[in-house]
Amino acid sequence: MPPLSLEQKIPLLMPHLDERTCRLYLAAEALALGHGGVTRVANITGYSRATIQRGLDELVEEPLAGRTRLPGAGRRPLRESQPGLVEALMRHVAAHTRGDPMSTLLYSSKSTGHLADALGAEGFNVSPDTVGRLLREEGFSLQANAKTMEGKQHEDRDEQFQHIKREVKAHQDEGQPVISVDAKKKELVGNYSNHGTEYHPKGEPVKTEVYDFPKPGPEAKVTPYGIYDVGRNEGWVNVGCDHDTSAFAVASIRTWWENLGKRMYPEAQKLLICADGGGSNGSRVRLWKAELAKFCQETGLTVTVCHLPPGTSKWNKIEHRLFSAITMNWRGRPLTSLNVIVNCIAATTTKTGLKVSASVDRTPYPLKVKVSNKEMAALPLTRHTFHGEWNYTFTPSSNEH
To answer: How much is the pTM?
Structure first.
């Protein structure tokens, strides 16, 4: 028979011991465990740390000659001494409490301290620690918010994903490039704290600014715009120092094509761009389409754009194949300069073979550039039969290419 674990042994033995002997036994087990033993035994048994500590003190005293307390002696459980306590506690922690106008915790956090105060206002005598123990006994634990509700979904969401899948396969079967594009969140340039941790000598963290106020200057904040080559698992990030406009988005694609794309795809005639439905590359942004039409004429490529359906930007491949890797690579590291940002991006790799290149774009991109109805009508744009507002193709003029 295999030896019993501590979790099995303690409940097996405790019913056969009186109160003092049980206390001494638990103290002996805690002593045998060493550092952290009191906490572990307390978690297994539900006894308080003070009770086990008292047992530890008694172990070094002279053996007790008198009687021990009779079975059943001691304080009665709170469930008996204060009827209705558990029911009142459950009423306060119920999910609907925040919307209950009669609750004293309507807009307060449900900490054990606040719960103990609310129960005290109802006449119960209970401490925050006891509230925590009662909650654990009832199956509660500390829980963070879970991002699982996407809200109302478009009725053609799945069909759009299938349409994108068919377009990607068709382009890749022909050896044509397929890219996923998006702008990463803006980053402050300077000695500011960055999320995450890195190894440093104990007690010697990197010291950063207390306040994250951007310093004045044209390069105080940057926007990394990413282009991810789906087939080759390669990324290009254009670090922009000005506004995140559609002109900047297409300029980033142009930079990728000039520096990497046309070298990797010398025979390319088509390009498929998968993008979110909003932002600088949004499906309803006129400047995005006008700039893409220029890119199409410059390169001679037939450019097809497929936008992800509303509310699904997290499914964009660039998010979890490129941007997440970059964030992990520079975690806990202050982005003190453009050089640091570019080098961190370019040094990003993954076990699946991701390669990333980066460049700095100091070109100014003015805001509020208008595209008239006449200019829109003149674009060489063909909308697909299925959701033409999400799926469309630019064809270069034959007289230029």
So the answer is: 0.68
